[in-house]
Amino acid sequence: MKTPFTLFSLLLFTLSLSAQQSAFPGAEGAGMYASGGRGTPDTATSVMEVTNLSDDGQPGSLRYALTANAAYRTVVFRVSGTIHLTSALRIKANTTIAGQTAPGAGICVADYPVSISGDNVIVRYMRFRLGDRYQKKTSANGDPVDGSGGDDAFGGLGRSNIIVDHVSASWSTDEALTIYRGDNLTIQWCVISEPLNYSYHFEAGDTAYEKHGYGGIWGAKHGSMHHNLIAHCRNRNPRFAGVSTYTPDTPGTENVDFRNNVIYNWGINTVYGGEGGNYNVVNNYYKYGPNTGSGVRYRICNPGMSTAAGFGKWYVSGNYVDGSPANTANNWSGVSAADTTQVKAVTPFDIGYAVATEAPADAFTAVLQKAGCSLPQRDTLDQRITDNVRNRTGRIIDVQGGYPHGTAYEQTVNAWPSLCSVPAPADSDHDGMPDAYETANGLDAVNAADRNGYSANGYTNLENYLNSLTHDGNRATKH
Asked: Please, are residues 433 and 424 in contact by the beta-carbon 8 Å criterion?
């Protein structure tokens, strides 16, 4: 019989594991301790099953899974394919989206943006490929209006404890993936590609649609961005948000570690911005492409300056610049700034969270092999993008599928890769774990409550199943 002291000690041990547990094996950086929909020993996660590709808000739809009331939610998929949204979709606090559970080729979300609207969120193995279906906005007489083409494919502003892992984002009319103004953020192993350049982006003061194929605005009070591929983006590869986006806008508020990323075929700029913040730009791999301007072909970064915040401080080291041995050997010769003496930091900033760092060439190989929504399997678009990077091919595009500006949406519907579905494994108690997995691991296939049991490794039984999908046999991936 357990004594009260033993039970109390066990409870403290369980709570301690939960409080300090990484989001999943392979989570690194400032967002690594997000717990998402894990729940607590007293409050179990609500398992939300996505069983169809409709956007009607009914049970079984992704919209229902993300909007139904739940203290903690874990979204699992029992179908693969593309979900065509009919309005924007927001992710609430304390949510885990486990795209790796989709049977078949995985999930893509299209037509409207998806954004993080609450703290403590984990998003893994998802595709967000917006497209221009609803992006053209005009006045009564047909003229473009402010806000036309103003959507990101995926993003979030002002949220904390966020980790975005193995996500593929593309075909936006603003930025492909934008997250800033929060705290404790990790963006890792993602593919950001082909934002639509000459699409329908129009802002007040414009006289024509902009060329706005931009990658993203990234930043956080503590932010880590590593092992991402950013390809075919005209600009914002990424832009660091800078302190003016915070209240108060105190210099040093934004602290970002950007390492082991691969940047390919930028148009007019690489990494830039970061007014008033602190930034590490370390061991990244830069490879110019067919659309890269000759004046920025060997640029590493372009620190920004504002009257209010001044320059940020940048530690730039170990970056590889394809085609420029000089800038590879001396990274600061690849930094374009009005006054590098005000920008240059001689020691890296400690943002409080470590990331295992590789040589740029090793990161290049790993990112091309594993980044993006690579589970259940890579789609043909990401495969094409990684082939472009290897072969220095591809281009910045204006319409999904590479069609000319103004092409009717109906002529482009085949641009979205086909994502086949297969029957999902039986899950009698609908706890997110297949019957066969529960039986093999000593769990009860007709007792949904066992999803919330904590294992010795600190994860719940449900989390152990979700994590097993990223480390198992033919579905294996390092992260």
From this structure: no
Beta pairing class for 223-226 and 177-188: parallel
pLDDT digits 0-9 by tens, 42-90: 999 999 999 999 999 999 999 999 999 999 999 999 999 999 999 999 9
Q: What is the pLDDT of residue 261?
A: 99
User: Given this model, what pLDDT does residue 338 score?
Assistant: 87
With a cut of 50, which residues of the chain have pLDDT below it?
1-18, 472-479
- pLDDT at position 6: 39
d(CA 251, CA 242): 9
Q: What is the four-CA torsion angle of 10, 14, 15, 17, rounded to 10 degrees?
A: 140
Look up residue 42 and give its two tokens. Answer: 């007293």
Q: What is the pLDDT of residue 90?
A: 99
Burial class of residue 19 in the structure, from the number of CB atoms within 10 Å of its CB (0-12 exposed, 13-18 middle, 19+ buried): exposed
Residues 6+ apart with CB under 8 A from 396: 194, 197, 213, 232, 233, 234, 265, 267, 291
Q: Are strands 239-240 and 262-264 parallel, antiparallel or unpaired?
A: unpaired
**Cβ atoms within 10 A of the Cβ of 465, count?**
22
Residue 132 has which token pair? Answer: 């221009």
* Distance in angstroms (rounded) separating the CA atoms of residues 333 and 243: 26
Cα angle, residue 147 at apex, residues 143 and 150 outer, rounded to 5°: 125
Provide the greatest CA pair distance for the chain. Answer: 80
pTM recorded for the entire structure = 0.95
C-alpha torsion sign, points 335, 337, 339, 341 = negative
pLDDT at 19: 53
| C-alpha dist (Å) from residue 89 to 112, 168, 401 | 7, 17, 24
CB distance 435 to 451 below 8 Å: no
Residue 53 CA to residue 82 CA, distance in Å, equals: 7
Report the C-alpha gap between 468 and 463 in whole angstroms: 8
CA nearest neighbour of 191 among 215, 167, 224, 218:
167
CA 387 to chain centre: 21
pLDDT in tens, 35-50: 999 999 999 999 999 9
CA atoms within 13 A on the CB side of 93: 7
Q: Is 282 helix (H, G, I), strand (E, B) or coil?
A: strand
Domains annotated on the chain, with CATH: 46-412 (2.160.20.10), 435-468 (no CATH)
Find how far residue 18's CA is from the centre of its chain.
24
